[in-house]
Amino acid sequence: MAMDEKEIGNLIGSDKVEGTAVYGADDSKIGSIERVMIDKISGRVSYAVLGFGGFLGLGNDHYPLPWQSLKYDTDLGGYRTGLTENQLRGAPKYQSESDWDWGDAARNRALNAYYGVPLA
């Protein structure tokens, strides 16, 4: 599949989202999207997992971000969040050797509340 076939109008292939830079409120790159989490019932993207804090992708912490907290910025060629790098350091996260419990509704509500986004 040619690269231009992965973007059609407002649609983009998940493999093209993964690796896309995420920029903070001050326009500095704070990490990149490692994966997207899609709701099986609605088919909507619910979360993006941001890789941040490592060196060359190694030792990254993983920050689940509600998809609604990201906006694509065509000028930057990446996603923008209203957080600064310092604010992100206090956000809910998990390390490479563990995983987020996506089935824990209370934890997901707390995550969305941290970012000021209602749980969809």
Kindly report the average pLDDT value: 84
State the order of secondary-structure elements, H for helix, E for strand: EEHEEEEEEHEH
Q: In angstroms, what is the radius of gyration?
A: 14 Å
Largest sheet: 7 strands, mixed
Number of helices: 3
Could you tell me the strand content as a percent range? 25-35%
Structural classification: alpha+beta
Low-confidence stretches: none
Portion in helices: 10-25%
Arrangement of strands in the largest sheet: 7-8-3-4-5-6-9
Task: Describe the protein.
The protein is an alpha+beta fold. It is 16% helix and 32% strand. It contains 3 helices and 9 strands, in the order E-E-H-E-E-E-E-E-E-H-E-H. It has helices at 14-17, 85-89, 105-114, and strands at 7-8, 11-12, 21-23, 29-38, 45-52, 61-66, 71-73, 78-80, 94-95. The strands form 2 sheets. Strands 7-8-3-4-5-6-9 form a 7-stranded mixed beta sheet, with no helix packed on it. It is globular. The mean pLDDT is 84.
Draw up the topology in text.
Elements: E1 7-8, E2 11-12, H1 14-17, E3 21-23, E4 29-38, E5 45-52, E6 61-66, E7 71-73, E8 78-80, H2 85-89, E9 94-95, H3 105-114
Parallel strand pairs: 3-8
Antiparallel strand pairs: 1-2, 3-4, 4-5, 5-6, 6-9, 7-8
